[in-house]
Specification:
alpha+beta, Aminopeptidase, eight-stranded mixed β-sheet, 180 residues, 32% strand, 28% helix
């Protein structure tokens, strides 16, 4: 599965992409904002990540710049941990590309894919000390649930406060969705 947005090409991650992944994510400032990525992040982590299979119902994409294939980051959907029907949007953007709208563009593309795949609800969260991610989520149409939860950060080695967000993809009223 591939997707082209205005500036990005989203594509599956292939084993030979490990160096591009490592180059973008081997930055403590990036990794500390992610829940499941360890720090320090090394070649073995990147190789393992790049070898993972592609789940067509919950895809993860390498986000590359369409003009020259530079690795911008990764974006994708994951199973929600509590087993709910929702999926979770996750992403990281390499530091040289921060503040240029790539997270919003990649997120918007993946939400379109989620809608096409039949997902009705998408969840996401951000650590409270990463307000930039909260701004991205709000630009994408996510609404804060009002809940702050403790999420484990592998990189930090402890639980961190995170703000939860939710987006209904079919545009229906939230109260109607919850009753369904």
């Amino acid at each position: 599965m591939f997707h082209r947005s205005e500036r990005l090409l989203l594509r599956p991650i292939w084993p030979e992409d490990w160096q591009g992944v490592l180059g973008g994510i081997r930055d403590e400032g990036v990794v500390r904002n992610l829940a499941t990525v360890p720090w320090p992040y090394d070649e073995s982590h990147a190789r393992e990540f790049a070898r993972r299979g592609f789940d067509p119902h919950r895809p993860t994409f390498l986000a590359t710049r369409a003009s020259d294939a530079a690795v911008i980051g990764c974006v994708g959907l994951a199973r929600v941990q509590d087993g709910a029907d929702a999926v979770e949007l996750g992403y990281w953007i390499a530091r040289p590309y921060w503040g240029q709208g790539f997270a919003t563009e990649a997120g918007r593309a993946v939400l379109g894919i989620a809608r096409m795949l039949g997902h009705r609800e998408v969840e996401s969260s951000h650590f409270l000390d990463n307000p930039a991610s909260g701004r991205v989520l709000r630009k994408l149409g996510f609404e804060p649930t009002g809940e702050v939860v403790r999420r484990h950060s592998c990189a930090r080695g402890h639980d961190v406060d995170a703000a939860d967000y939710r987006l209904w993809l079919d545009g229906a009223d939230r109260q109607t969705q919850r009753a369904a």
